[in-house]
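Field: COMPLEX_INPUT
Field: COMPONENT_COUNT = two
Field: RESIDUE_TOTAL = 1024
Field: MODE = joint
Values follow.
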Amino acid sequence: MIPWYQNLPLWVTFFPLLGALLLLLVPKGQRRTFELGALAITVIDFLMSIPLWVQYDRSSAAVQWVTQMDWIPSLGVKFSIGMDGISLVLVLLTTLLGFISVWCSFTAITERHKEYYIWILVMQFSMMGVFITQDMFLFYLFWELMLVPMYFLIAIWGGPQRLYAAIKLFLYTLSGSVLMLVAILAIYFLQFKTTGHYDMSIASFQAMAATIAAQSHTFQILMALALFVGFAIKVPMFPFHTWLPDAHVEAPTAGSVILAGILLKMGTYGFVRFLLPIVPKATMELMPYFMGLALIGVIYGALVAMIQKDMKKLVAYSSVSHLGLCMLGLFAMNPNGITGGIFQMINHGISTSALFLLVGIVYERRHTRLIAEYGGLSKTMPVYATIFMIMTMSSIGLPGLNGFIGEFAILQGAFQAAPWLAVLATTGIVLGAAYMLWLFQRAMFGPISEVNAKMKDLSAREIAYFMPLVVAAFWIGLYPKPVMDVLRAPVIKLVQQVNPGFYKQEALEAGQRAAAKAGMAAMPMPGAKTEPEEGGN
Amino acid sequence: MPFAAGLWGALQRDLPLLFPQIILIVTATVMLWPGDMFVPKGEKRRWAYVSIFALLAAGLCVAGTPHGLGFSDMFEVDGITKGFQYLVLAAGIITILLSQLQLDAMKEQTVEYYALILFSITGMLFLVGSTDLISIYFSLELMALCIYILVAYFRTQERSIEAGVKYFLLGAFSSGILLFGISLLFAAAGGVTTNLVELNDKLALAPHSSSLLVFTGVLMVLVGFCFKVAAVPFHMWSPDAYDGAPTPITAFMSMAPKAASLAAFLRVFGTGFNGVQSDWMAPLGFVAAASMILGNIAALKQQTMKRLLAYSSIAHVGYMLLGVMSSGVPGGAQAVWLYMLTYLLMQSGAFAIVIFLQGKGEGERIEDFRGLGRTRPLLAFAMMVILLSLAGVPPLVGFFSKFFLFKLAIESGHVTLTVIALLTSAVAAYYYLAVVALMYFKEPAAETAEPRTMGAVTTWVVGLSCALVLLGTCFGAKLLSWAATIV
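Field: COMPLEX_OUTPUT
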């Protein structure tokens, strides 16, 4: 008998879908039922995901709570799900933002409630599917499925240019993911050629790394590029980011929250789970270019954010900058950098989502997002201003708040990889502080106009849904160890897969303790370089 | 008389292979005469039931037909034959079901309509099993001639007649090319055979001096076939013919003849020209790529639903030709069959909806879908599911069959083409989504038409197709093993 919690990830994932089907049965027009129903479903889902956090075995890097069933045996496709630490934090982030995004929509959504809440629930289902699946085929299904609800959320409840933004999002992502599909299939066949049977499981794909490294140079580079483009569009990294500001500006608040908080993380998750472990050698080779794009993203995003007149656009461009930083950490390919990158995913999910919520609140009251329209809000809306400040500080990485931890670890990792990287990345952070503080100053201080003087402060409901985010921001900022613990084992495993040279180097220097690890990564890979050399590239 | 006795013996042996065709021919002939004399003028609808019954009977017969080769090796029943025969028969049944709404509204119920469909399907049943260039040509013509007439069936509408004439002229032209190609090959093979298997051997042995002859012949046959399946650059007839034809016939054309011609494609190029692959692989690759690119891009600009579906079907033919090119690897024919099956599912649902909305005749503009999400939520949902599946969005069944097809294409080394196919399918998402956007995000037009009921038939067809499209992938393993047993 499998204990009940063995299937918990399955339940957490499918519960929103069941809820959506349930809401489908409720006749139209009962606004309250839909609002409370969706809230109840997402809150229960969140509560259900907490035991995962408690039960998770932090000492092991293995995939836990594995549930596996044959699906299409002749293609080697299995319905297989499970989680490791990286999945776990992202699933928790999803369930947390899930109920917040439902809760924040109560007043913002004034029409077609039934469809709205159903789409949100389907969205949550498909996003969690992406994070917990252990099968490439299933992953691709969820990855694409998630586009449909997002498309509808933007296109029905969005701003004036919503149709354009929605289709842009859809087509951009779709073209990226078909390239990814080609790479998946190519590796799949290579695997068939070498092992003689079809297998779609992610583990078997990761095990292909050495075989791929033995293939022709062009093949490796093409595989790496195809996967890179697929994920980079989703993140989005510098030249592929143009869909993001459109989508964010047009999306309803909850849509922006989900988009920034979780959807973008699917891209970074893709890098961690697929690009790095499956084609490490080619990735290493292309690393200078990837790093370059990430750096451009950090600085360019910050500069563009600085000149925005629209609050939401400003926050959107700040996402480009923050995720560039996150990618920088991941591409540093050492434990600090990768841990920092994953931290940055979570922190960005918390602080940027909160900022989108904050923008949404004033937009609901005034129906404008132009920064010039506001000013002096701290006088009439003190609670609002406080939360705004906390989230601004979190976003710019003030020590004591969550943003700091991620940025610190990333810079540490980047410095280890190449000191100049860290130097350049720091300019991005400085610019980040500049535009966020400038935004805060223009919106919160200064003379107050007559219209703004009438604005109401946050309602109890609004305060309530901010609380989890504020608590999380402080918790991670002050005591990040629990999250670190969860991430440690998977990150070490990842670094061993990607950059075995790193531990070898460390072992040489540190001796006894790390010698065991170096033994696990005893096979040096030709492409793996030690850190100082890599910086020279 | 030993000759007569021998003939009789051969007939006795081979006739069981043709029972399905015989059922249809007899039914259609009896329907025309004397059957039609006994049916009063207003009651011609009855023939629809008779035809459906005949098609079902033929389907049962197909299931019972033994595998075998007969009629001087001109006709073979094997997995491919049976698999595609099922598809063709199903397409026929769906067409007749969908025809009712429009024929009743236009008061155009006649026996000829059904008889022509049956004859045409007979041609297709022959075509999918033909193993000789001559029998292929005959059955192709039987199939096509009936469709020419069906396209021009609304003889009072200029559009319909224009479409029929255009289709007929180009069709006749392409038949000429096909026939010329066949004769060249006949000559190149030494003037002794047109049988595909023997041809393959002969062509492989053909002297070097006749290689140009072989190449020209193969290319001409290819061109002839590409006309029939409307692949770019031989597609010019199809949007006009699709647009002008009665909508159920448009549905029919996009399903049945495509399936049958693809089966012939598989057989001719997989068996007959297998030895001279270098002659046709590159041209076919070009045709496939051009179909995917042009079909999808041209569809972006269309104003009517029928033309949109016509161009999208050109693109889908491109994907299927990619499957034909990959049919060398095990499972290649299955992939094409599976693709055709799912395509049939989606097309029947989409056309059912178009026909229903079209009501009494005139052209169906995409604009008419405006606000459907408000006025008819269930119908709009079904349309959305089908369109997304046509676009190949997972987890719908359209994705599954595409996945399987592309998998085989990569396996047989057509990586560039597969990349083109995938990228163009992202383009395709745009025009399918444009319709979805129109249904859901635009207010319905001010003058809402009088509410009409769907009718049980349309409801069933749409519902069934939508459900299968939605749930198909869950039964992916079943589908694959099913395809493996049939084809």
